[in-house]
Write a structure and sequence with these properties.
This protein has 191 residues and is an alpha+beta fold. It has helices at residues 2-30, 72-78; strands at 44-46, 55-60, 63-69, 110-114, 125-127, 144-146, 153-155, 175-179, 182-185. The protein has a 3-stranded antiparallel β-sheet, with no helix packed on it. Strands 2-3-4 form a 3-stranded antiparallel β-sheet, with no helix packed on it. A 3-stranded antiparallel β-sheet has the order 5-6-7, with no helix packed on it.
Length: 191
């Protein structure tokens, strides 16, 4: 009886090893080729010379990246304390250390962020200072972002207001300026 248990065990172990070895090529075929990088890795984003208040959206592998040229009024307003923000210092948000300031940007006038709402991943839209609520009350003093699906509202530094469905501020990618109208995304959305 012990010999039969040993043979059963050895047969099962051999079958398990064979199945594992046979599945390796299948699993490898699902992975991307090692010589291909994701399309956004070290991606250059060229944008035209923007006028104050203008924004462009660039589609990337990880979602839309927004580049907004803020007005002097927006910059001034962002530097004031705002008690209506959920996380004004961005302690709970994804952003590189280079943008850990009230403007959340390397250059004060240029704001770069992923345009993905932190609530359920919808694309947010830019709103000008003239945008109003349905009831006629001004939504933003100096513009900002809004999630059209669920109503989350962000200021022009991507910081979410209190009592909104979004739990965190907009994520900021790791980026650097190549020149006045070009940035390079240096890492993925995990930051």
């Amino acid at each position: 009886m012990d010999r039969r248990k040993l043979l059963t065990f050895l047969t099962g172990a051999t079958a398990g090893v064979a199945a594992t070895l046979a599945s390796i090529p299948f699993i490898k075929s699902l992975l991307p080729a090692s010589h291909i990088k994701p399309p956004d890795y070290d991606r250059l984003i060229k944008f035209p010379k923007l006028q104050p208040g203008e924004m462009i959206a660039v589609s990337t592998f990880w979602g839309p990246v927004y580049v907004l040229k803020r007005t002097p009024d927006q910059i001034q307003e962002l530097q004031k304390e705002n008690k209506d923000l959920r996380d004004p210092d961005s302690n709970e948000s994804k952003q590189p250390s280079e943008v850990s300031n009230e403007l959340r940007s390397i250059k004060p006038e240029i704001f770069v962020a992923y345009g993905i709402c932190t609530h359920l991943g919808c694309s947010v839209t830019n709103r000008s200072p003239e945008h109003e609520w349905e009831g006629g009350t001004r939504l933003f003093k100096t513009g900002g972002f809004i999630c059209p699906c669920h109503g989350a509202r962000y200021d022009s530094a991507g910081r979410v207001y209190k009592n909104m469905p979004a739990p965190k501020n907009l994520a900021i990618p790791m980026y650097e300026f190549v020149d006045e109208t070009t940035i390079r995304l240096t890492e993925d959305r995990a930051h």
